[in-house]
Amino acid sequence: MLEAEKDIVIAGEAxxxxxxxxxxxxxxxxxxxxxxxxxxxxxxxxxxxxxGPVPYVIFVTAYPQFTLPAFELDAVxxxxxxxxxxxxxxxxxxxxxxxxxxxxxxxxxxxVGAADSMNGTKPxxxxxxxxxxxxxIRVRRRLVSLDMNDIAWIQGASQYSRVHTQSGEYLLSRxxxxxxxxxxxxxxFRIHRxxxxxxxxxxxxxxxxxxxxxxxxxxxxxxxxxxxxxxxxEKLLTGIGNRGH
Length: 245
What we know:
Helix content is 29%, strand content 29%. By secondary structure, the chain is α+β, with helices and mostly antiparallel strands.
């Protein structure tokens, strides 16, 4: 099936967990098709313990009970044997799209950095990990690059996310959990299982006096804060208070 995919080049095959870990470290593939139960280990544990960047993963297994832990690792998809060709093609298409979006986001960041250098300005220094300044989204047959500063909030819905900006809304075939890993935690806060907000677009946080809070964005939209996410309230309020300083 893979050999028939024009966007796929097979970099290697592994028969055991140690061999798979070694090949992934050597080849640095964009995408890995990983079984769950493999000789010498477990596919999920293997990926959790990888040294270096973790590739995009499509799990292929005969055990559907592993679906949840697989998606906790932000797997692109989970194929149950025997693999159906139509289902397989959809998984590959989704993976290729995500890889392209990731590459375009990196390219956009490089372009912005080059433009800043030409204009005599420097991008802001980051003390922690480097996070992208732009998010690239495919809209029909074109790619749109969104400035992170323009993103007000991101709404999660199953395997999709809806990015809300001042200029409009964009549907992205990514889970909210996968996007959260690529967002600067000093700017973006997950206030609910289905909502991430940009602190720069938060007008205020209101308490109802019974332990419930609503996050109000510029423009008036109110979003509920999940009870399990109160630990980010202080950080969010600090971000609002420090705005402009």
